[in-house]
Amino acid sequence: MAAGGGDPAASPMKTPSWAVRIRGADGEIAGAGILLSPDQVLTCAHVVDRAAARLTAEFVGATDHSVPAVPARVDGTAYVPETRDADGDPSGDVALLRLERPRPVEETVRLHRLSAPGREVRMYGFPYAHNGGIWFRSTVVGGCGRDGQVQLSPVSPGELASPGCSGAGVADSRTGEVIGMVLSGQLDQHGNRFSFMSPAETIARHLPGLKPHIVGPTAVDERLLPTDDGPSPDLLDEPFAQRLAAWLRDDGSQVKISVVGPGDAARAATLRRAITLADRELRTAVSIDRASLDPPGTVPSAGGHDLAVDASGVTAAEIAERIADRMGLWQHPEDPPLDRIRASRSTLNLVVVGVDEAIDPLPLLDLLEVLRAGGSRLLLVFRTAGDCHRLARDRLLTRPARERRARLVERLRDLTGPLAEDLHERLAAVVPHGLRPLDSDLVAAHAALADLLRADDDGERDPAGDPDLDRDPYPHGVHDRDPGRAPVRGAGAVPDLGRYERVADRVAGRLAAGVAELDRLRDRRDELAGRLRGYHVLHQHSLQGEEDPAVDDLYLRAHALLRARPCDVRAAEAAVDAYTRRVDEHGGGDAR
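The structure assignment produced for this chain is given below.
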């Protein structure tokens, strides 16, 4: 039995006892469900709608290997239909059913709170072609919309959740814990396939009565929750709120650092508000309605963070254990949590408040460095702009950004040097028919490199971009977001490394594609040259010393085109074809 209790169905060879097949009055499968208690089944509201008034719950994984069928009905008011906001984002679509006869308690499962980014998951549903049930595998892509729902990407095209899967439990492949419920599967007009789930925290928000059946630590430390004797909820530092919301919506910054002093009531209230609104479980309808009256750009989407901890008076080891638990790193519990975190491929969006008030701030910074290096996003709040704050900026922002810039400079030098030379060498060999000109891309790479080197020459001391929530993200008035151009900046301006990385990615991709196409043309040229030589030898043997000026002219033309630099492969191909056809017509043999 796993940490969550019940049967986590860790083995993909096993039909989970908690998997429920739901039929309507017509006997058709309406969807799936999750047995949370002996007489309660969680499912989607639209499954209930599809099944009409009469519902039957069937237990395909019953421990006695039978398939019991039990009448069911909606459990009181535990029904939240799907609604859509003004932007078309869905919300709700959860319902709880009450069984007429209870099932054994050992067949039940509890939902588990678990940070989800990048996790491999599987779900057991009942599509029409597999009425007995079948596993679907997916990878968590990330949060979507404002309800805290999560997008899933099927491992293979055929594993898109289809009708009969709605309401199915979503189990984490590594721990076996059920962490959410399938909502729907969609195929868009471009052929892209998507599935969506409602994680445990979002389900808890819509159906608070289910909280006894949901285990695992909540995402927000209790000390970070708003209190009646705390700062007034009417206090709002609007610029700070906008920068917090931008990070929580993933503005592209991996690490953000800010200072919220002990006497700054407005900032403290703004920070708590952002943490609350970004949490799937805490973001209630009341808070959403209130937030809708607030200034634009200050309201984050639910799911903006995976964990928010208060470091004040806490050790780094305790925080690491909290993070490891939230990541589901329960294997090898004898290993220190920091080692488990370092060895895992899991990431999360982490908020740490009071970094400088931890019992051991330096080991905490070590932990944060490991998380940053592993790809996690960090929002760090200090109480004072003292030594710990400066050290954190150096270790988590300045140094990594300097290393990132150095890697980018070397990459751009490679693109504008050896790779560009490879391209020009091939352009000198063959005419680039159908190839998009790459001059503008190379100019953009040269400009980006010059901009980065100029920033170094200007003595830029902080290459971290906009690392601090206390600073204007565009202190030099640079708002150009076109990734295809390298903007001209004034002395002291902070280069946008993300933009230049996108330039490098684009140029590298086009250079690689261009070189590959030119190599294909060179190979075709060499192939034509070999064919021409073979036909010429056969033709000379067939003439037995005689001359054929017309055919010789065709040969000389093809030979000259193939030897030209750059070689026009299309023209050479036509000339070789003309020569070989004439040789074939004269019975000189076929060397093709």
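Interim note for the steering committee: The longest strand covers residues 69-80. Residues 1-7, 461-466, 472-492 have pLDDT under 50 and may be disordered.
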